[in-house]
Amino acid sequence: PQTIYRKDYTPPTYLVDTVELGFDLDPERTIVASRLVMVRNPDSVRNGIELHGVNLQLVALRMNGRLLHAGDYDISGDILRIPAAPDDVTLEIETLTAPVKNTTLNGLYVSNGNFFTQCEAEGFRSITYFPDRPDVMAKFTVMLRADKSKYPVLLSNGNLVEEGDLGDGRHYAKWEDPFKKPSYLFALVAAKLVCQEETFRLKDGRNALLQVWVEDGNLDKTDYAMQSLKNSIRWDEERFGLELDLDRFMIVAVSDFNMGAMENKGLNIFNTKFVLANPRVATDVDYAGIEAVVGHEYFHNWTGNRVTCRDWFQLSLKEGLTVFRDQEFSADMIGTDTGRAVTRIEQVRTLRQAQFPEDAGPMAHPVRPDSFVEINNFYTVTVYEKGAEVVRMYQTLLGRDGFRKGMDLYFERHDEQAVECDDFRAAMADANGRDLAQFERWYSQAGTPVVTATGRYDAAAGTFELTLSQSCPATPGQPSKLPFHIPVALGLLGADGKDLALIVDGANAGTTAVLELMKPKQTFRFTGVKEEPTPSILRDFSAPVVLNYPYTDAQLLHLFSHDSDPVNRWEAGQRLAMARLLKMTAAVGAGDKLALDDTFIDAMRKILADESLDSAFRENALLLPSESMVAEQMEVVDPQAIHLARQAMRKTIGSALRKDLLAQYEANQTPGEYSPDAISAGKRGLKNLALAYLSAAPDDAIYALAQRQFDLAGNMTDRVAALTALIHSAAPGAADALERFYAEFDNEALVIDKWFAIQAAAPVTDVAAVRALMRHPAFNLKNPNRARSLLFNFCNGNPAQFHAPDGSGYAFWAEQVTTLDALNPQVASRLARSMDRWRRYAPALQAQMKQALQKVSGSGKLSSDVGEVVSKALT
Ligand code: HT7
Ligand code: ZN
Fold first, then answer.
1. What is the CATH number of domain 450-552?
2. For atom 1 of ligand 1, which residue has the closest CA?
């Protein structure tokens, strides 16, 4: 497979003004007729028309009315070239495809008897020949024809302009999208579906029709998605002055989907997981996910659709920015400062859990990658979440108003254009009169920067000096790095726990100052400091870096008790916990006795019982770093030792804090009607964390508590928490509860996913048990949600079993990656990533992991998706 480089970008040879598409939909034999009105691109440095096409059967190709024959054009790989073409061209292309045979869920496919499309990034080329690149933007008109009884609903982008019967049991619908768009935003749906709809008044007084389409039987689960859509529209009007530009906005749910959702213009297609919810089937986390993803896809309408990417290397231009926007939306929907901080804590956790490891592994790449083999492999936590951090840093450096000015200028300059990350940076800089040249390195350099801080207090002079130095580890293809432009938000705490006033260069800088670290090493000096302070560095996680500061336990305990910045308050607790987890892991390895100090337990108790703090904050403060986070901190990873140490720590907390945990368990009940609001969800979160700790040191009373919650729970959050507690504590009622849960929800696919997921991640589940679950009639490898629920949760969420010393987990992984690859390369290559960090394990495990990687890499017909992942892992 070929590597594609960003530096090789050339403009398209022809531009497309209009596209007329006609679909005669049939699962076995769909005819696609396309009429492209094209014009030579004056900016092109090359000649001839170039169209992309994959697995298409070409029936006829006409240029300006003349039928072309072999010799007039040539097809080589994925490119159809017409070397001799006039400046103005109308191409008519007829192709055939068989959607029912398409298991990749890319392009046009069939799910549960209905037709759907997924075109990002390069799926449109498997529907018809087209210059399938994001910098070719055209106006689309789409005619859909299909059997009326099987596919009563025919949808595409934009506005419905005509519909009717064709006789012979077929019908048609014609859709017109008034906006120019790249082909990756094309979508169609032909299906038997029902919808919840509503007319919504936009800020400028226009009315928009909002629809949420689902399969019959699911209309009782669409309210939250609809509410989230309305909230998103309002929020974008208010926060960014961005309005919905269409008369109609549709969301369609599909159960077979490779990712979360897709922002097709006016016709968003969603994984059912991010649409369907009612208290019986969905957890608080599901509700939050729906709000975030509905928001995310809606916000793409401006950041992605109206202004799109010049090429796929610029993916973070739309994804990083849109993740940032959905993060801000979710935080604003909660409304309180602590609620906002809790969303930030969750973002930091995702970064540490997933993005930092990616940035330190064989697939590390800059936010704006320089090369790829398979673009689908670059829908990553780096492009999305680190990309969002990069956008957030503009806001931290420029302030909210400055950021808004930059956004306004970005749209003023680039509406209906396909642009680059540099254009966004230029808009931010120019709108604020700032030089952001060095900031470019956040886009071009991979790796997580390390900021090392030291403090020096001079009592006589009343000064505190903070020296910050930065470095960044080597990453594939980038042996050395230049300094980043890093915003470091800082506060200083006095002995009473209160913030000290910050005086820099004689001026009052409030209680949190944003320091700009731009050199390899810089010293910042604060005057008028009357006592030795405890520095609170990187408040609100102001940059995606690793911070080293020689904190003492006493300082961390001080910050954990008092920091006015809730993110750093949480962070202090995480540092305390991580130090103990690492010490206990080492003790397991050495066969020493495991002990947890009272100081730590007392600090946990204090936070747990502090009812002045939101329950959601307390839950997060008490949550221990995950096993994989501990693994990231170790030179040589020992998954079993980490698991034993963390379990021992949970057990100690469960028994030492039993009384306090039981008290909070009772105090955080949420009687009455279920509501997914942040306060109620936070209470359930804390209550269920208390249950989890209690179940780590169980006795009959605790088993009974979990059992009672399982039996009486009025919502899925409590149900799942109780079931998990029963299984993890090997309670006497665990097997029975599992069986009952299945029987009660066997018609609810998303709940059955949870049933598989809970078992996959349970400490007792070994490879043999996973294989047994794969034989369950409800298991289906072709459905990505189901595959993720079992295989991904086992390979990524059950490290002690996955890394079994006999290598059985790795052999299983190799088998599943290979089998999945033949069905769905995109999903297979995500599973392939589970082995990214293989070089960090003990030699005996490493050898077996390498063998498994080699097995996959050597297996005959490998997709470019999996091929790229395993070959980079082995390099
Ligand atoms: N922009 C969407 C990306 C996406 C996608 C990419 C590759 C293969 C399948 C896909 N489904 C959706 C999702 C988003 O970020 O909003
Ligand atoms: Zn997105």
1. 2.60.40.1840
2. 262
